[in-house]
Structures are given as C-alpha cells and as structure tokens.
Amino acid sequence: MATVQTLDNIRVSLERYLGKKILLKANKGRKQIVTKKGILEKVYPSVFVVKLDDEGNGHSRVSYSYSDLLTSNVKLQVFKDQNKLHVS
Length: 88
Prior knowledge:
Blueprint: H1 4-15, E1 21-29, E2 32-43, E3 47-52, E4 61-65, H2 66-70, E5 74-79, E6 85-86
Antiparallel strand pairs: 1-2, 1-5, 2-3, 3-4, 5-6
C-alpha cells in the first residue's frame, strides 16, 4: 500500500514540471486508453490538473490523483522543448 510519503514524493517531482507541455496517457478501462497533449497547470495536495490542448471536445481541463500515477492508470511524458518528448 502506498504511504503518504510516497504520494508526496510524486507530488514534489511533478511540481518541477508546472507549466510544461506533457503527453498524458490515461487508462479509462476496458482496454480504452486516451492520449492527450496538454500543460501541467496546477499541483494540489491530492490531485494535479492538466489543461488540454484540444478544447473542441468540451473538456479543457482534467484532474487525476497521484495514486493514478503510482498504479500506472495514468502515465505522463514531458516535452523537453516544443517537439521532443523527455521520458520521465
């Protein structure tokens, strides 16, 4: 079971990427994986918020908990510059 310290370490590591462009892969269940590009907008004590690039579908922001990252339900990759991904 994840300790509070483990989840806090994930939060602290995400704070380094505030305002950076990321690639988000989220497992929605039943073999549905959603891939979106966006910007890591906010980091809160229990969740983080990503502002999505594609605003045409009505969802301009999504939020996930740090346990989603820990359980690999959500995966993040950070862009080093505008076009290249940095695997973290």
